[in-house]
Please model this.
Amino acid sequence: MARRVRPLWTSVPRQVRARVRRWRARGKSVAFVPTMGALHAGHLALIARARRAADRVVVSLFVNPLQFDNVNDLKAYPRDFTRDLGILSGAKVDLVFAPRADVFYAKDHATRVVVEGLDRVLEGAHRKGHFTGVATVVTKLLHVVEPDQLWLGQKDAQQVAVLKRMVRDLDLPVAVRVGATVREKDGLAMSSRNARLSADERAQAPALYAALRAGAQRLLHPGRAPAVHVAELAMHVVLARAKLLRVDYATLVDPRTFSAPGRDVRRGLLVVAARFPSARLIDNLPVRLGGAR
Amino acid sequence: MARRVRPLWTSVPRQVRARVRRWRARGKSVAFVPTMGALHAGHLALIARARRAADRVVVSLFVNPLQFDNVNDLKAYPRDFTRDLGILSGAKVDLVFAPRADVFYAKDHATRVVVEGLDRVLEGAHRKGHFTGVATVVTKLLHVVEPDQLWLGQKDAQQVAVLKRMVRDLDLPVAVRVGATVREKDGLAMSSRNARLSADERAQAPALYAALRAGAQRLLHPGRAPAVHVAELAMHVVLARAKLLRVDYATLVDPRTFSAPGRDVRRGLLVVAARFPSARLIDNLPVRLGGAR
Model:
């Protein structure tokens, strides 16, 4: 029987739910990739990974007002629905959910999903309420889409930690999968915010990844001083050369807690955040930790 | 084919999820009744209503530590698993989920579901963190059970308001249904906490319902003074006769917000909370509001 042509996108939650339930009733596995639009090669790599891992792929396009602590950042966030939809159509996505903010959040919306602890450090400390906004919207999206897999990008590593914790704590019936960070040739991690950088800022932006690599190098070959301090110092030295940026943090954390790793932790994460006048950027690099700390 | 005999209860979330999914895949509707055990006729009436409304009924038995603001109240809460299981077996429940607290909440559990506003007034004000504990555990239970219907008792009216708001705000795919309060012959609302009352306290406990009826009477037949104030005064007069209790509140609210009803609100709720030395009791009575306020 010929497959009926259905519209690629909808803003109506119950249409998404009905479609996904029909797929699942027929034994199809469903992967979900939440995005805020402004799609770039990083999103496409994530969608391609999801495509290989599941029978159907649902992508959401939603600039979630709840996760912006800064109204100017929300206003400046790039939006081009037609362009994004064209890209997703080319990426063989099965369904796009693009809710309207004023419908998705009722006027008297009052419920928040809070992941305590993780929401207070690093990105959480620099962007008040950000992770509560992320956890709340992803909970809503998961309830609408009801996927088997939730695909997230490693670039937003603390977001991954928050959502993994949330999924476990709330017994959400979904597997969290993580796609590797996609980088420009000069090492800059793909991000929708890169488009806002001036030419001079763009020229200095690879400093974040360069700093992470310098830090990782020092962890691999520790000298006599505590390796963590040497690594963090090395990151700051590299970042200091990029005169247009100001460092929010550059440090080594446990990727599950985003606090200093305990002595028994074998997998660490170097994380960095820095502000250019036009945009704030983050990046990270997983590292293996030896016993030499 | 003969139906296999399965155990009535389990403490393992994935066993519950698997069983319910098989039912739903066969087109069976599933109702869920969360309880903290210490079952009484009120629970049984709720289960019987759920039984009539769905093909399968799942009941949870779980004294949720997260919703107790008072450690003594948590310790004093009656627990008799064997008795409860016997009652549920007689009530033709299909599956009982009785998680272990130390497994259901991981040691580093960090996620909270907060329903802002409703968690600050009346019961929320008197029991700090209570509704966050309720919202969090019900979210977890709904993710494990994945029912079509969530059945709640009207006796805990503010809990109903909190959970209805949460289900709507988070797009939880479940219909919230409410069962009427079941009362002793003298009007006392059934509650697991009634068992803790002394004989003298038990004798005075019907004052709560008597106060609600007195308040409703004044709303039906308003005089010249504002009916709301007259009704609240009438409730306090009745409660004052019960010498062993102290009133936490006795007032008229909008059942959706638990704040003072606006002039256009047609359905009000009289609510009362009072403390005996041995237990704190609550009750409520829905009322129609005229234009005479």
Summary: The mean pLDDT of chain B is 94. Chain B touches chain A through 30 residues (CB under 8 Å). Chain B has eleven helices and ten strands. The first helix of chain B runs from residue 13 to 25.
